[in-house]
Amino acid sequence: MTAARRPAVDFVPHRPPMLCLDEVGEDTATSVVCHVTIRPDFIFVEGDSVRPVAMIELVAQACAVYLGLQARCAGRSPRVGMVVGCREAEFLVERLAVGDELTVTVHRVFEELPVAAFTGEVARGGAVVGRVSLSVVDGDLAPAATAPAAGEPGP
How confident is the model over 44-57, as pLDDT tens digits? Predict the structure, then answer.
């Protein structure tokens, strides 16, 4: 388990402005905790707030951090992944505000490469404001990522 905070950019292929998470905190073999402060230049800000649906992206990026940490432990670079399903999303607030400090925690519930499933929670001030369940696929390992499109010749 690692608890020291590290820059999220070290564990994902995302770059600003699409990198939403600021830091990575505690991680275990099955989970990771990430942190983000909603700033005025946050890509999803509308006026002075953010719609709660943005929590799906925060959880997806925390999943990417988890997988990036696992890749680093195995001596590999973080890879591009794709969300293939959002089985559940529960938003407990009407909006998130500029200045909100959020904690995003994800737990891996299943992994059989190239697919993994996660549950995630977003908290503000210690109170849960959203829950999301996602399935993701490793873009480099997914057969569809390398298969020729319909009508195109194969390799």
Answer: 999 999 999 999 99
Token pair for residue 135? Answer: 């399935």
Give pTM, 2 decimals: 0.88
What are the boundaries of each domain within the chain?
6-145
Q: Is 78 helix (H, G, I), strand (E, B) or coil?
A: coil
Q: CA dihedral in degrees (104, 108, 113, 114; nearest 10)?
A: -30
For residues 116 and 32, the answer to whether their CB atoms sit within 8 Å is: no
**CATH for 6-145?**
3.10.129.10
102 token code pair: 């959020």
Backbone angles phi, psi at 99, to 5 degrees: 100, -20
